[in-house]
Every structure is written in structure tokens, then in C-alpha cells.
Design brief:
The protein is of the alpha/beta class and 126 residues long. The chain contains 4 helices and 7 strands, in the order ββααβαβαβββ. The protein has one domain. It starts with a strand and ends with a strand. InterPro entries: RibonucZ/Hydroxyglut_hydro. This is MBL fold metallo-hydrolase. It comes from Cryobacterium breve.
Length: 126
Amino acid sequence: MYFVLDVSGTRLLFVGDSQEGAWEHVLDDPVSKALVSSVAFYKIGHHGSHNATPKPFVESVLGHGAYAMLPWGLVKQWENTIPKAELLTALAQLNTHVVRADAPVAAPPAVEVDPGLLWSQVTFTV
């Protein structure tokens, strides 16, 4: 399931736990692909796991300089695989501002973090 919120041309993309099959459908369909293109904000799918955000989406659809939220906390069992290192590298190469739930004090510019570390906020001008 994908949810795209468009506010005066500023798009926010929420993909929940969508995995490879759903991504293939979206990326292979021109209309669907257009809906998820050039978003200002992307909620990274399924905690950044191996099949939740395909590299082609990051490299050719997401666009440069977007904000991406990584809702993730360390789970010992998956500490070496989630979040996927290749995903974080691909995001960094496109100057994506990654807002990480596990590292709120390292939030990118224009991100406000609650002093109690309960929330992060990105403000967009629309």
C-alpha cells in the first residue's frame, strides 16, 4: 500500500511495509511511477530492510535532496542487516536528508527534534 499526500505540489510518500512485488508494480506502471516521483518526503519502507526500498527507486525516482524518515531501532537479531547499508549509501549519494529515529541528535538541517526525543519535525514551504 502506498499513500501519496500532495499539498500544493509538495509530495509526501508513505509506503508502510511495501516490499519488492508492490514496488515492481509501481515502478513498471508509468502512472504509478509518476505519483511517487520527486517527493519532498519519503517514509522509508519496512525499517530499511533488504526488500523494502529498491535501489532503482532511490537512484532514478526519489530525486536529489529529499527528506527520508527511517523509523528504526536496534533489534539484536537484525543488527547487521537492518537498515540495509546499500540503501543508506544510495540515499547519501543523492544528498537525501535521512531523519533517523535511532539518532535524532544527528538530524539534518531544517529538522526540529523534541528535547525529550519523542518526535522529529520537518517543515516544508508550500
